[in-house]
Amino acid sequence: MDRNYWEKIALNYNDEIFDVFQNDKTGIIRSAIREYSSPQQTVIDIGCAVGKWIPFLSTHFKKVMATDISAKNIELAKKQCGDFTNVGYLRADMSDPKLKIAASDFAICINAILTGSLAKRNIFFKSLSKCVKKGGHLVLVVPSLESAFYTSIIRNRWNIDKPDHLKRYSSKEAANKLRNIEQGNVEIDGFATKHYLQEELTLLLALEKFKVTKIQKVEYSWTTEFVHPPKWLKNPYPWDWMCVATRI
Ligand SMILES: C[S@@+](CC[C@H](N)C(=O)[O-])C[C@H]1O[C@@H](n2cnc3c(N)ncnc32)[C@H](O)[C@@H]1O
Known about the structure:
Elements: H1 3-10, H2 13-16, H3 20-23, H4 28-36, E1 38-46, H5 54-60, E2 61-68, H6 71-80, E3 87-91, E4 104-110, H7 118-131, E5 132-143, H8 145-157, H9 171-182, E6 185-188, E7 191-194, H10 198-207, E8 210-219, E9 239-247
Parallel strand pairs: 1-2, 1-4, 2-3, 4-5
Antiparallel strand pairs: 5-9, 6-7, 8-9
Bound molecules: S-adenosylmethionine.
């Protein structure tokens, strides 16, 4: 999942990419943002894509900096959010060790640290602390590895959609899958996509000078995982992790 991948996806962004803003039915992420919002403060949207969160951020903060690695996404965001005049746009790669960026009072980073590359993720996490002023706050949303395993166990136990045990892999594919799963990379549409454990998140953020104050599930419907979820399949629902952290 490098820059090329995101530039290509931009053409069909709404069809290809899961919309967290729309699917956060209980509004847990919006509540967390509201808790820290202030018309005197600045916010940065890290990995803003086509700008789903920009209108909400624009009405809750003095100034929004919308950043993304993809120039096409930034263009689309600019076009779609043209009515919001307190928004600046910046194409920036958070996995660039030389990144220079002005720190904001508050940051959101919603399902953007997905790369299967450990080296790129390490720099991305370091960039998070460059983006937030000391004493400022971060709302980070990432895919949950616990949820991915839970979904996979349910799929295989009740033969939902296409169970994994019906798939056949060559030894090379199997070795690749094992290497990926050992570091929390789950394949989505053929791409190794990083998923995180709750404890792992606290550790990764602590290493980059963030104190986690809250970790909660952002729950979604089972139709986000299965084409035909059984009617009896209810709580617990599949989820992402949302972390709220303070930059120390
Ligand atoms: C799944 S989309 C999430 C978009 C948005 N945060 C939302 O919730 O609607 C992930 C976004 O992260 C961006 N991204 C991925 N790697 C990045 C990097 N290294 N630096 C900046 N943005 C990145 C991608 O271009 C893409 O737009």
